[in-house]
Specification:
Elements lengths: L2 H10 L3 E3 H6 L4 H9 L4 E4 L2 E3 L7 H11 L4 E2 L1 H7 L17 E6 L11 E6 L2 H4 E2 L6 E2 L1 H10 L4 H13 L5 H9 L7 H9 L8 H12 L7 E9 L6 E10 L4 E6 L7 H16 L3 E6 H4 L2 H14 L15 H7 L1
Parallel strand pairs: 5-6, 11-12
Antiparallel strand pairs: 1-3, 2-3, 4-5, 7-8, 9-10, 10-11
Length: 333
């Protein structure tokens, strides 16, 4: 085998190669058998070798799986990691717990299964896959949607989308375009709501969920929605028109709902601080909540309820229909 060809191959694949690649680079069956016999090449999967006898790195496990199933690409959490996104701390790495997930073109049936590797076929493989990437993997939008749809909770699903947007890997618009082509996907309705709600428009999906799942479900006072106010800028020179998401005027409290997935621009963040300071100057407490908090509605209801009670509300949050409602547990404590 020409040494330059071997070195280039091994550098690209982290010291992993297949028998087919070795033969294609100029080796013969005798040479391959000799390297295995001497322990210089160690069999990882049938016809796939690594050039050392120590523990495999993550990259080596991935390349060994890819070479075991030619034409496949990394999928799921492995694809996200290849794009530089940390794998979810909870949830399944593949369709089988702890397995490395690969995607194959539709109609490509693996002849044999391998322990620790989960394969699936995709009709959209040509669109979704990046076979020339190193390592070959799904596009980040497809991988993120897949992982979010199978996350162990709604909170975890939102976190996956938030991570890829916040770190600048993709945009809500690109994720939405992929989601719209994925029919029958678990949690599709929730993911669509989250991706639509990246602005602060009136009656956004997040605001509707707060009204339904937090305020009404737990018997909280009815707040005023999208209350228009004129607020002076921090410099005191200019004034701006803003809309309070939820205002409990009798109890001098505000709830601001942030449906954005990524970090806000500095100007937006400063505007939020101006709003909070203006509210504080008027004696109002400001509670800020995003998707993570609204998707845990019982806990948020407790926080809002306690804040309102401290400011004069005589009632108490009521347990909702959920059997594990924290309000019910809190009352019993």
């Amino acid at each position: 085998m020409p040494d330059p060809d071997l070195q280039r191959l091994l550098r690209r694949q982290h010291g992993v190669l297949s028998r087919r690649q070795a033969l294609g680079a100029g080796a013969d069956q005798v040479h391959v058998a000799r390297m295995v016999r001497r322990g210089q090449w160690v069999v990882v999967h049938p016809g796939v070798y690594v050039t050392h006898n120590g523990p495999l790195t993550r990259a080596q496990r991935e390349w060994a799986a890819l070479l075991r199933y030619p034409g496949s690409v990394l999928a799921g959490a492995a694809a996200l990691a290849a794009h530089g996104v940390a794998a979810p701390s909870r949830g399944r790495q593949g369709r089988q717990s702890g397995s490395l997930e690969l995607a194959l073109p539709h109609g490509r049936h693996p002849r044999r299964s391998s322990p620790g590797i989960s394969t699936s076929q995709r009709r959209d493989f040509a669109e979704a896959a990046l076979p020339a990437a190193n390592p070959p993997r799904l596009r980040i939008e497809h991988a993120a949607i897949d992982v979010a749809s199978r996350a162990p909770s709604e909170d975890a699903a939102v976190a996956v989308l938030a991570d890829v947007v916040r770190d600048g890997h993709t945009t809500p618009a690109r994720l939405s375009a992929v989601l719209e082509r994925q029919r029958g996907l678990p949690r599709r309705a929730l993911l669509r709501e989250v991706l639509v709600d990246v602005g602060s428009g009136a009656q956004s999906p997040l605001e509707r969920r707060y009204l339904r799942d937090v305020e009404r479900a737990h018997g909280l006072p009815t707040g005023q929605r999208q209350v228009r106010e004129q607020v002076a800028s921090w410099s005191g020179v200019e004034t701006a028109t803003l809309f309070r998401d939820v205002r409990y005027a009798l109890f001098s409290s505000l709830v601001e709902l942030d449906g954005g997935l990524g970090h806000s621009a500095a100007a937006d963040r400063w505007a939020d601080l101006d709003r909070d300071l203006a509210a504080a100057a008027d004696g109002f407490a400001t509670l800020r909540a995003g998707w993570r908090q609204v998707l845990d509605p019982c806990r948020l209801a407790l926080v809002v309820g306690r804040t309102l009670r401290l400011r004069g509300w005589q009632g108490q949050p009521a347990p909702c229909a959920r059997p594990d409602c924290r309000v019910r547990t809190d009352r019993a404590a």
